């Protein structure tokens, strides 16, 4: 369904006035698509959507969850993970403690990819991982570590490309997958093994409004395929948050189609697939 510009502005304003959420600096094009889909899903006009947002707090929460982007995969873009394994992670492996933040972690597949990689490199025990998202539903999925087998089948090949790329791993294929995942093809289910589940703290966090949730600085911040949905002003606000909470020489890992532009580019150095804090 079409949404007029006035209706679009009012929807964003109503959400902001009746909750702690602020979508005013999100990409207009992206939000238009999501609001239109919500109207189609509920078969209501924009006027009814606005009315419900004003009067039904639980409905507002549901709408917020529907308009946040929740796409992630295990070892997405294998070359990125191979770069981390061969370059950045070895450089910090001698530290007494390593701190990593996955911002906008969605349902957690990339978080568990990181944990598996750290385990393979022998540095998981001294690594502290936090993973945050605005959407509490996907956080529950992430905490459980349970996913659809058929949906993720193609990405198991990425798993092998990254872990076996070093040449020192004798396990590959299903034998490697089973080391870290309980695979139930009959019930179309993949479950992350318990010893991986316990290595990460999941928490709700709003990149738009919230500051550093932990009070520490990070060696690595992963925020992939999130800022592409923000406008330039909000992107810079998020880059400032990340810059202030990275260790010196810490790195920021964005999606392969995301980049830093403008003034903040002077504060980071592009190195391979990631940005290093100057």
Q: What is the C-alpha radius of gyration, as a whole number of Å?
A: 20 Å
Strand line-up in the sheet with most strands: 6-2-1-7-8-10-9
Q: Helical amount among residues, as a percent range?
A: 40-55%
Describe the sheet with the most strands: 7 strands, mixed
Number of strands: 10
Q: What portion of residues belong to β-strands?
A: 15-25%
Unreliable stretches, pLDDT < 50, 5 or more residues?
none
Question: Structural class of the secondary structure composition?
Answer: alpha/beta
**What count of helical segments does DSSP give?**
11
What order do the SSEs take from the amino end to the carboxyl end, as H and E? HHHHHEHEHEHHEEHEEHEEE
Shape: globular
Average predicted local confidence, pLDDT: 90
**Euclidean distance between termini CA atoms:** 46 Å
Summary keywords:
single chain; 278 residues; alpha/beta; seven-stranded mixed sheet; three-stranded antiparallel sheet; 10 strands; 18% strand
Structural notes for this entry:
45% of the residues lie in helices and 18% in strands. It is an alpha/beta fold. Strand 4 and strand 5 form a beta hairpin. Helix 1 runs parallel beside helix 3 (46-55), helix 3 crosses helix 4 and helix 5 (78-92) crosses helix 8. The longest helix is centred in the N-terminal third of the chain and has 15 residues, at 28-42. The protein is globular and about 60 Å long. The termini are far apart. The model has no long low-confidence stretch (mean pLDDT 90).
């Amino acid at each position: 369904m079409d949404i007029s510009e006035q209706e679009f502005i009012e929807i964003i304003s109503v959400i902001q006035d009746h909750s702690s959420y602020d979508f005013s600096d999100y990409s207009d094009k992206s939000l238009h698509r999501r609001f239109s889909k919500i109207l189609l899903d509920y078969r209501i006009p924009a006027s009814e959507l606005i009315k419900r947002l004003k009067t039904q707090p639980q409905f507002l929460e549901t709408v917020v969850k529907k308009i946040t982007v929740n796409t992630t995969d295990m070892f997405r873009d294998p070359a990125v993970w191979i770069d981390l394994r061969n370059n950045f992670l070895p450089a910090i492996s001698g530290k007494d403690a390593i701190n990593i933040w996955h911002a906008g972690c969605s349902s957690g597949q990339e978080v568990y990819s990181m944990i598996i990689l750290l385990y393979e490199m022998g540095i998981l025990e001294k690594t502290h991982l936090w993973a945050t998202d605005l959407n509490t539903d996907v956080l529950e999925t992430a905490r459980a570590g349970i996913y659809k087998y058929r949906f993720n089948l193609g990405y198991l090949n990425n798993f092998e490309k990254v872990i076996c790329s070093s040449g020192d791993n004798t396990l590959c294929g299903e034998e490697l997958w089973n080391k870290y995942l309980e695979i139930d093809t009959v019930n179309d289910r993949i479950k992350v093994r318990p010893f991986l589940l316990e290595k990460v703290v999941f928490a709700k966090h709003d990149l738009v409004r919230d500051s550093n949730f932990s009070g520490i600085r990070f060696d690595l911040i992963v925020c992939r395929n999130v800022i592409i949905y923000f406008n330039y002003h909000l992107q810079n606000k998020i880059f400032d948050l990340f810059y202030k909470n990275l260790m010196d020489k810490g790195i920021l890992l964005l999606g392969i189609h995301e980049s830093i532009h403008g003034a903040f580019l002077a504060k980071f150095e592009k190195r391979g697939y990631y940005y290093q804090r100057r």
